[in-house]
Amino acid sequence: MNISETAQYLKTLDRVLILTHVRPDGDTVGSAAALCQALRDLGREAYLLDNPEITATYAAYAEPYWATEGFTPDSVIAVDIAAPGLLPENAKIYADRVELCIDHHPSNSGYARRICLDASAAAAGEIVYAVIRELTAVTPAIALPLYVAIATDCGCFQYANTTARTHRIAAELMEQIDVSAVNKALFRTKSKVRLAMESRMVADMELYDNDRVVVMQIPLSLRQEYHATEADIEELSSLAALVEGTDCGITLRELKPGTVKISVRSGPRVDACAACALLGGGGHRAAAGATVEGTMAQAKAAILQAVERVTEA
Amino acid sequence: MNISETAQYLKTLDRVLILTHVRPDGDTVGSAAALCQALRDLGREAYLLDNPEITATYAAYAEPYWATEGFTPDSVIAVDIAAPGLLPENAKIYADRVELCIDHHPSNSGYARRICLDASAAAAGEIVYAVIRELTAVTPAIALPLYVAIATDCGCFQYANTTARTHRIAAELMEQIDVSAVNKALFRTKSKVRLAMESRMVADMELYDNDRVVVMQIPLSLRQEYHATEADIEELSSLAALVEGTDCGITLRELKPGTVKISVRSGPRVDACAACALLGGGGHRAAAGATVEGTMAQAKAAILQAVERVTEA
Lengths: 313, 313
Fold this sequence. Notes:
2 copies of one chain form a homodimer. Chain A has 12 helices and 11 strands. In chain A, the strands form 2 sheets. In chain A, strands 6-7-8-9-11-10 form a 6-stranded mixed sheet. In chain A, strands 2-1-3-4-5 form a 5-stranded parallel sheet. The first copy, chain A, has helices at about 5-10, 25-40, 55-60, 125-135, 140-155, 165-175, 180-185, 190-205, 220-225, 230-235, 270-275, 295-310; strands at about 15-20, 45-50, 75-80, 100-105, 115, 205-210, 215-220, 250-255, 260-265, 280-285, 285-295. In chain A, strand 8 (about 250-255) and strand 9 (about 260-265) form a beta hairpin. Chain A folds into 2 domains: about 5-185, inorganic pyrophosphatase (n-terminal core); about 190-310, Diaminopimelate Epimerase, Chain A, domain 1 (Roll), CATH 3.10.310. The longest helix of chain A is centred in the last third of the chain and has 17 residues, at about 295-310. Chain A is an alpha/beta fold and about 325 residues long.
């Protein structure tokens, strides 16, 4: 469905439950919150399904919209969720009845009955912005979570997914809100624990493939040593992508013994999505991920081999 | 002078020399290069005075415009230069004959015969963009250095000086050019030397004033230990501003034995410009600097006292 069709369809709904994805980021949370507020401004009953994995970074944007216990939705909407496997545990019961998915992942599995997908959007928030524009006024209460959604998914306008449209939407949103505190909190603040962990990851980084591929690791032991919270670790995978001379930054994070989350950030030479797809994951060409079973060493060997395979092809 | 008056005045000039400031950053270099190209597109002879302190980061934007030896200008223009003291050594001979200064520093000393100043601009590049729009087409050769000017001075749209106008100009420029390689090089690349130096600065940081003020130091010895180039050190002063819980990040850099460059990045509580002014420096409220004589310890004591004084007031 295009933007107008999606807006028209949304007008027909009431008692709406909006879902966010596992390990929720700014885009899924901000887009869902903005959409929820817009539906409420239209007089509809709308909630977000509470996401148990929400971090302190994004909690304030989502919590005001958590569904009360016992809320029975008529319609379920998913935002920024590319596949049913990315639904949190408490959302799995809705996997078969998602009426609409608004997404920007080209790898979207098509699990929802209706889909509004624009892979050229830097964030699902860009699509949600366009939809809301056709529904109701973009108030400050809508503009703030939308700014969070868009700014976080494009690295505050640094990533290659940023377009002229991304900047124009940001300009429109900034007419409604002061984003300086948000920018400071999201992009220019690091906890002392995080700074210390980054130092260790840099000291221990490994280079491969003629120093073009860098691997950084976050074993459980490192997290325990620093008593790191989830917020301390959030987006740590962007660190590997900074190393000069490399164009493929791999971060391995031990989620629990035997389970490793792999994140890949890459330049044009390497298709991160294709590499992660070989391990059952997905994402975008320049930023993708996969979760695998095995030790850190096994995960490292697997993703290095996958990167090599897609790069040769 | 306003934008139109400045554009009209520029049309009357020929044989123009454009000056950039000491320790040239993206804004002074990018703004000067864009203006120089625009004047050339108008059929004028125009050059940049070579800046001996240019780093590898910005050299490619400036070098094509360096004045040939023996070029005698009819008119001299300064871009992003708040005071004659910020002129490089080889530009001092022009200090008394700057016909026009285009600047966004509220502290501009008014040394030029004409001034086009807009303190609400995130970068001098925003003003130069508006002026060029009245002169000639914004071609890719103009858009690229202007994007560098604007993006670097607002921390790629993260700093509090970023406005809706900043984003709108970025959108216009991005219609002309692909900025992904520039963003990667300027904002998402760190040399291994820089990463190692950052780790050391973090490990050695000191906290003051109930942990609200953080001090980081770059002594000459640290630079020598890592064989760091100027490009490795560039913008290292932004690191101190990241530490969670602090709202005043002070970086002390030993330029040579007995001379220390102080940089202050601050939140609303602290007026960085007022603090640095007490030590003979200047800048913006949230980002300012001063160069002082003395040891690192003396410079630290002086700026901590200055910050305390302006914060009490």
